[in-house]
Specification:
GO molecular function, one term: transmembrane transporter activity
Number of helices: 17
Subcellular location: Cell membrane
Radius of gyration: 21 Å
Main location: membrane
Strand content: under 5%
Order of helices and strands: HHHHHHHHHHHHHHHHH
Number of domains: 2
Mean pLDDT: 86
Structural class: mainly alpha
Number of strands: 0
CATH class of the largest domain: Mainly Alpha
Pfam families: MFS_1 (PF07690)
CATH topology of the largest domain: Growth Hormone, Chain: A
Keywords: Cell membrane, Membrane, Transmembrane, Transmembrane helix, Transport
Low-confidence stretches: 400-404
Length: 404
């Protein structure tokens, strides 16, 4: 693809990417089916049943690294097709063996492999084919498509499961037409450069672990940690203050998905507006959101805080992966993205431990307040970094080169 075309939106690439991106987090739509599965397997432990939902997320960590290494030997298009086949196998397995909880766990493992591949590959494909603000637009659209897809799949799985719970897995048949479109529309693309292995030495490692990539990944760990504090603390905060019940919690959290879609569609505008301070903008918005939520005396301010949080999170989602792709060469982006997904996953996993540890040191400090302070600190660090140490950044400008 020429440099000119790399700065123009190519819908022949975007259409299949937006479609298969729907399935990069598709299993989140199956939470409504879990209660029915518990009834079908009354002798199974609650933990084992919950693993049906958690296994796909757990698979993301090792798979993200594996796909980054495989991209040096296999084209991204073929990796996408492999991941879709894994999701199809995982989706069909419960339809054939729904009386075995072991089969359901195996199904989740296949789906987890597929999802883990797609999370890294979808972004890497955009990094390979687009540059500059066009890449930002593309990543925002991908994020919006994923959010719309999860919402649509949630409704569809609920409808299918109305007759019998395992019919929900029929949604994975949608993978078939998507795979056909990938075959005919998505370019074959290039393999990533070999980054590890015999004869490569430290050169490959240096191409991935650039100073910008290292800094952004450290930031990603803490962004994952304190972003997830919203979900682990908002319900406790509302109920402890006597501001409402489950419906109030839903009102505070419902804005996240909606605003993620809206901001994803308009991410290119946000990127052009804030340029290299795009991540800093989401940090200060998130900090304000958490301060509002922590001190809210009524449900109205809880809703305001929820909206602000949704805006901050909506910018953070495509913004973080965009910064990662700009920190390395396109040929090293798949492994860099895989490492970043691991850092985010670790941050989310350790979020309750870290947030509660800080909250426990100061009497009366809630997890929401800790997250607010953390985002404020990260905002200051990011502004200083971009203003003083990243003066040559081309992020948000019409033409740009990767920042090392």
């Amino acid at each position: 693809m020429s440099e000119v075309s790399r700065n123009k939106m190519n819908w022949k690439i975007m259409i299949p990417v937006m479609l298969f991106a729907i399935f990069q987090s598709a299993f989140m739509a199956f939470s409504s089916v879990l209660a029915d599965i518990v009834k079908v397997f009354p002798d199974a432990s609650p933990t084992l049943v919950q693993m049906i939902l958690t296994v796909p997320s757990a698979m993301t960590i090792p798979v993200s690294i594996i796909v980054g290494l495989l991209a040096s030997y296999i084209t991204k298009k073929n990796l996408v097709l492999f991941s879709l086949v894994c999701e199809l196998i995982g989706g069909l397995l419960p339809l054939l063996a729904h009386k075995s909880i072991g089969a359901l766990i195996a199904s989740s493992a296949f789906i987890g492999v597929g999802q883990g591949f797609l999370i890294s590959i979808a972004t890497a494909i955009l990094a390979e084919h687009f540059d500059g603000n066009t890449r930002g637009w593309a990543m925002g659209l991908k994020q919006a498509a994923s959010s719309v897809g999860i919402a649509g799949l949630t409704v569809l799985t609920g409808f299918l499961a109305a007759s019998v719970w395992y019919n929900a897995y029929f949604v994975y048949l949608i993978v078939i037409p998507i795979a056909v479109l990938v075959v005919f529309l998505l370019p074959r693309g290039h393999k990533d450069v070999k980054l590890v292995g015999k004869g490569v030495g430290l050169r490959g490692i240096r191409r991935v672990f650039t100073p910008s990539m290292i800094y952004t990944n450290i930031l990603l760990f803490f962004l994952g940690t304190f972003n997830f504090a919203f979900y682990t603390n908002i319900g406790l905060s509302i109920t402890s203050k006597g501001l409402g019940d489950a419906s109030a919690i839903g009102l505070a959290t419902a804005w996240n998905s909606l605003l993620t879609i809206v901001i994803g569609i308009g991410f290119g505008i946000i990127l052009r507006l804030f340029k290299k301070f795009t991540l800093a903008s989401c940090m200060i918005i998130s900090a304000i959101a958490y301060f509002v939520l922590a001190g809210a005396p009524n449900l109205s301010l809880i809703v305001v805080g929820g909206i602000l949080y949704g805006i901050g999170a909506g910018i953070q989602m495509p913004g973080t992966v965009y910064y990662i792709t700009e920190s390395v060469d396109p040929e090293a982006s798949t492994l860099a993205i895989g490492i970043s997904m691991v850092m985010v996953s670790l941050g989310i996993t350790l979020s309750p431990v870290i947030v509660n540890a800080f909250a426990g040191r100061i009497d009366g400090t809630s997890g929401l307040t800790v997250a607010a302070i953390a985002y404020a600190v990260m905002f200051v660090i990011e502004v200083i970094r971009e203003a003083a140490f990243n003066k040559k950044s081309r992020i948000g400008l019409s033409e740009q080169a990767p920042a090392k």
